[in-house]
Amino acid sequence: MKIRIGSRESKLAVIQAEIVMDAIRRFDPSIELELITMKTTGDKILDRNLDKVGGKGLFIKELERALLDEEVDLTVHSMKDMPMDVMPDLPILGVSKREDPRDVLVLPAEMAETDASSMSLEELAEIIDFSKPVGCSSNRRMLQFAKHFPKARFEPIRGNIQTRLKKLDSGTYSATIMAAAGLKRVGLDGRISRYFTTEEMLPAACQGILAVQGRRGADVSFLQEFFDAKTWQEAVCERAFVRALDGGCTSPVAAFAVAEGETIHLTGLNIDADGKPFVERCEGSVADAEKLGLDLAGRMKFA
Fold first, then answer.
1. Helix 161-169 to helix 11-27 angle, to the nearest 10 degrees?
2. CA–CA dist 107, 72 (Å, integer)
3. Which part of the chain has CATH 3.40.190.10?
């Protein structure tokens, strides 16, 4: 048996594909695996924000085409990059156990001696050089960061992790905001200056989760060592909330769910009529994860 796995060609994407491949090997070492990498439209366009060129779907378009043309059998994605509505013929077939979901502050390498890990937000405001822009292309992050740091101004920063760090270290930016999960997976968690708590900065829906996409009806029993049922319920809840609010890559809408036993806790973020972010929380049964996301979105949509 041979399984061809499609991935973006960045270092992080390859590492994420290898996480899936390792899980398949644990299930059955005799399965032959082939990794096929490709550059997506989202990887090629680095001079414009995603909302100007078609959204996060640009990161999966080529991979979906490869699935439809049967050039690959599975594809691996950061689940936060998956559009809220996927093609019916190419469903999400499995999700990983969630890596650290938090956002983090990354300061330029020249500030490596500065220990910001335990600083309060007020103390951080004293050491960030706000005469330079913060490198950030996410409306969700910018709105929440600006709430804590009113002096901040932003300029887009695109590219893979290594590219963004190089731009940061060049002196163009005062700081950048990244996902802890990506930095940890590529072994660069040493660049993390400070973790934001999920109360300080609500993560993107499904941040830290890997998703496997494939053709409808495919037998994926070999993903048993990869699939995490708890994370699946959290992802269903978060995606239902964001989908109900028409949240995509350009929207500041965010959701973070935590399943504990038979209960799931959901925190949602939306913007009010004045464009200011506000947060609400709720909890319910894990069995009703999707309904919980839809119900909270309904409450916040008309708040």
1. 150
2. 39
3. 1-96+209-227, 103-195
The 3 state secondary structure assigned to 97-135 is CCCCCCEEEECCHHHCCCCCCCCCHHHHHHHCCCCCCEE
| DSSP bridge partners of 3 | 33
The rounded distance, in Å, linking the Cα atoms of 82 and 233 is: 16
pLDDT digits (tens, 9 = 90+) for 215-270: 999 999 999 999 999 999 999 999 999 999 986 556 789 999 999 999 999 999 99
Integer Cα distance of 91 and 236 in angstroms: 13
Contact by Cβ (8 Å): 1, 31: yes
Q: What CATH number is given for 228-303 in this structure?
A: 3.30.160.40
108: nearest Cα among 162, 170, 54, 62? 170
Residue 39 near residue 258, CB atoms below 8 Å: no
Cα–Cα distance measured from residue 223 to residue 19, given in angstroms and rounded to the nearest whole number: 11
Q: Which residues form the catalytic set?
A: 81
pTM as predicted: 0.91
User: Considering only the top CATH level, what class is 1-96+209-227?
Assistant: alpha beta
State how far the Cα of 251 lies from the Cα of 12, in Å rounded to an integer: 24
CA dist list (Å): 259 to 135, 139, 199, 296: 33, 27, 17, 16
Q: Using one digit for the tens of pLDDT, what is the confidence trace for 23-55?
A: 999 999 999 999 999 976 655 554 444 454 445
Q: What b/e readout covers 214-252, taking b as 16+ CB neighbours within 10 angstroms?
A: bbeeeebebbeebbbebbbbbbbbbbbbbbbbebbbebb
Q: Give ranges for CATH 3.30.160.40 in the chain.
A: 228-303
> In CATH, what number does 103-195 get?
3.40.190.10
